[in-house]
Design goal:
This protein is mostly helical. The chain contains five helices and no strands. Helix content is about 50%, strand content about 0%.
Length: about 90
């Protein structure tokens, strides 16, 4: 059995950060304060494309500890939840 490989989706990180932040009802300023970064830095992390910036691992660690957010989901999205064959509860 081989270990699944996760790929880092740089553009997806920005979308997931923004989506999770909004779902928690936090502004960029509130999130940034808890994550230990400035609002401008948070804005860059949530921006896609050439103007965007990928957060360092220390940021993900801080977000996980301060906000209770799954850092692996922020980094790789749905890949963080492996789908296992034959383990579904659906018995139809």
């Amino acid at each position: 059995m081989s270990t699944p490989k996760l790929s880092l989706d740089l553009y997806g990180i920005a979308n997931r950060l923004q989506s999770v932040r909004r779902s928690m009802g936090l502004s960029q300023v509130e999130w940034a304060e808890k994550a230990g970064v400035s609002r401008l830095t948070q804005m860059r992390y949530e921006r896609e494309g050439e103007d965007g910036q990928v957060p360092p691992l220390s940021y993900f660690s801080k977000v996980a500890s301060e906000l209770g957010v799954d850092w692996l989901h922020l980094m790789v999205g749905d890949q963080a939840t492996p789908k296992r064959r034959g383990l579904s509860n659906d018995r139809s």
